[in-house]
Amino acid sequence: MVKRAASAGIDGVDHVNGKKASRTHAAHIINSQDDYKHLYKSVQPLDIFCWGSGSMCELGLGPVAKNKEVKRPRLNPFLPHDQVKIVGFSVGGMHTLAFDEDSNIWSWGCNDVGALGRDTSGAAEKLKHVDAGDSSDDEDGDLNELESTPAMIASELFPPLAEGHKVAQLAATDNLSCVLFTNGDVYAWGTFRCNEGILGFYRDDIKIQRTPWKVPDFSKFKVVQMAAGKDHILFLDEEGVVFAWGNGQQYQLGRKVMERFRLKTLDPRPLGLRHIKYISAGENHNFALRKDGKLVSWGLNQFGQCGVSEEIEDGALVIKPTKVLLPEDVAVKMVAAGEHHSLVLSQEGDLYSFGRLDMCEIGISKDKLPEYTYKDVHGRARAVPLPTKLQDVPKFKNIAAGSHHSVALAQNGIAFSWGFGETYAVGLGPSGDDIEIPTRIKNTATQEHNIIFVGCGGQFSVSGGVKLSEEDAEKRADEMDD
């Protein structure tokens, strides 16, 4: 069960086009057309926390076997904020990318198809013998030391850095990594998969790309945003045109891909969407926010995760961008989506969710499901196909969705999570139970942090935060006691 992730920012500003805006609760990249704000980069170095299941080195906490399961957020010891100075990251299905304030790019996690952008083949793995007297299910051998430990990708592989350009955004799918620089250049590495296995990387020329590679220009204008799905990725240029690249078997690319031509068309191509100011992607479905404020979606919709109709149909596809049925007065701030569920955060901090609920993905308790909830032939509630506002929750400033779990950050910097609990990706401790509604993550490591950046993978999560001052920490403690 693997998945890409969403992203967020912190108190400050950073812009692709070099323009400056007033300070708000988060860092922003601004579309040069309409000043729509996207959350990606911090102006303060972050403490990085990781938790969940990491048998494929996802957690980046080092090679010791006990790091394969971490049930609450744990500070990453390899990324100290006063030395490494991470300011942004993106979480893929089984790997994570991060960048520091000097635009050095770091990676950790599974490197089977080159998603880390660096060679990890020389690792000295120390595996325990299966019959060893001290072996156990929890300590069945150490991890690959080069994959499980965060490390920099060689900066000389990114010519824009030598020219004085900076990292604007990172994006990670299940098997691919991308970096967008402030001059609009896109570099990528890894590969795409499809139902039949490895699809490829670029047309029929490259199957797997193991080091960063400049993607040939595909727009006349500068790229200003990326959105990563499971095995596809979207790009938005400064003119508001959307491009898609990767696997399109569920209409993620917004067009029908003929089997005999799928490699010849394996490159970023426009999907006919214009006048867009923001994009987001789930595993196999997508969202785009038009400049008039209307949100549209397309792709796989068998659990109503596109939010375009009350109708539920197995294998359903939305083959062209269609209006999401949000209340008319909702101003969209950002969207996050998993395999079969979606989240929409409003500018006011309200959270709307829709899609599958088998594993508590949508954060609505079973006794408060709306009347339009879809039930199967046995009368079991399976999905909520329309955006539904969550009740009795705080105002949020950021959201992220994994395959079957989610994390939302309250405006005071406290993280709440819900969804599938068996892999501990919700970060709520050892029970492993599914979490029905947004529940505060309580642990010593993060209790005095303003968490402002979060991402969710397939079975793990990553957050970044800044330690509160003593005064602010006391104020928060008082608020929690009230």
From TrEMBL:
Superkingdom of origin: Eukaryota
Determine if Secreted is one of this entry's keywords.
no
Cited InterPro entries: Ran_GTPase-activating, RCC1-like_dom, RCC1/BLIP-II, Reg_chr_condens
GO CC annotation: cytoplasm
Task: List the keywords (alphabetical).
Answer: Guanine-nucleotide releasing factor, Repeat
The scientific name of the source species is Torulaspora globosa
Q: What is this protein called?
A: RCC1-like domain-containing protein
Give the residue spans that cross the bilayer: none
SUPFAM superfamilies xrefs:
RCC1/BLIP-II
User: In Gene Ontology terms, what is one molecular function of this protein?
Assistant: guanyl-nucleotide exchange factor activity
- Segments forming domain RCC1-like: 48-462
The coiled-coil regions, if any, are: none
Ranges: RCC repeats: 46-102, 184-239, 240-292, 293-348, 349-412, 413-467
Name the Pfam families for this protein.
WD40_RLD
